[in-house]
Design a protein that fits this description.
- The structure is a single chain.
- The chain is of the alpha/beta class.
- The chain contains 7 helices and 12 strands.
- The strands form 2 sheets. It has a 7-stranded parallel β-sheet with strand order 3-2-1-4-5-6-12, sandwiched between helices.
- α3 runs parallel beside α4 (104-117) and α5 (129-142) packs parallel to α6.
- 31% of the residues lie in helices and 25% in strands.
- β1, α1 (13-24) and β2 (28-34) form a beta-alpha-beta unit.
- The protein folds into 2 domains: 3-123 and 237-263, 3-Layer(aba) Sandwich (Rossmann fold), CATH 3.40.50.720; 129-234, Dihydrodipicolinate Reductase, domain 2.
- NADP(+) binds at residue 36.
Length: 265
């Protein structure tokens, strides 16, 4: 079955990779793209886009009505991603959203809407298969070593901190780990936030530097030993197998799924 896809954010680094991946897949069809700058032209006429005879829309509602896609792949930013996800569900289009920054209230509201519409939706904090395995391995390790800190590193254009991957990792660890204060009981920060963000006693540190793509370490400490799990995305092609999997899975899913870890044993 051919899956008709629209991509929001086709000029971004991730969007460009997604467009290329969709063009390579025999069962995927790139039907249109949604862009905040260009409207009413073909991609090949727009600066910074692939040279394709595919229409560009600025209005996502108009795009969905005229194109009638199966799936929206959104690779924009947190606020736009939230809005596009909701609009996709309202139009009966299955969204795959790769932006982060969704609150628990956002997730609950969108879950209800997906269930009401009886279609699938996926929010993926990270599309890299290795990063998903890192999350699952971290949950496994936390059953046996419950002192843990997370260090995530990303490019300096990333808007949110900590990353969605770090947050999802901490949430998965918390499912098997009791909340506990780590470090010295009388620990004090000479400089505010030196110990990073805190989630149920775990410390999460965010690094933002040019030259980085997406990197995460999860460090466990125990009596006389440490365990470090690390994943590095060296370029954005590392995310495309996960995007492909998400598009295929969302067609068979009902309701909202948060994180591709639910699809990997």
């Amino acid at each position: 079955m051919m899956i008709k896809i629209i991509v929001a954010g086709p000029r971004g680094n991730m969007g460009k990779e997604a467009v290329s991946m969709i063009e390579r897949e025999a069962d995927f069809e790139l039907s249109a793209v949604v862009d905040r700058k260009y409207d009413g032209i073909m991609m090949k006429e727009a600066e910074g886009m692939a040279s394709l005879q595919v229409p560009v829309y600025k209005d996502i509602d108009k795009c969905m009505k005229e194109v009638n896609p199966d799936v929206l792949v959104d690779l924009t930013n947190p606020e736009t991603g939230k809005m596009h996800l909701r609009k996709a569900l309202e139009h009966g289009v299955r969204p795959v959203v790769g932006t982060t920054g969704f609150t628990d209230d956002d997730i609950r509201g969108l879950t209800s809407l997906a269930e009401e519409k009886q279609i699938g939706a996926i929010i993926a904090p990270n599309f890299a298969i290795g990063a998903i395995l890192l999350m699952k391995l971290s949950k496994m390790a936390a059953k046996h070593m419950d002192d843990v800190e997370i260090i995530e590193q990303h490019h300096d254009k990333k808007l949110d901190a900590p990353s969605g991957t770090a947050m999802k990792t901490a949430q998965l660890i918390s499912e098997v780990r009791d909340e506990k204060k780590q470090g010295h009981p009388q620990e004090e920060e000479a400089w505010a936030h030196a110990r990073g963000a805190e989630y149920e006693g775990m410390r999460i540190h965010s690094v933002r530097l040019p030259g980085k793509v997406a990197h995460q370490e999860v460090i466990f400490g125990g009596e006389g030993q440490t365990l470090t799990l690390r994943h590095d995305s060296l370029n954005r092609t590392s995310f495309m197998p996960g995007v492909k999997m998400a598009v295929e899975k969302v067609m068979k899913t009902t309701g909202l799924v948060y994180g591709l870890d639910q699809y990997i044993d």
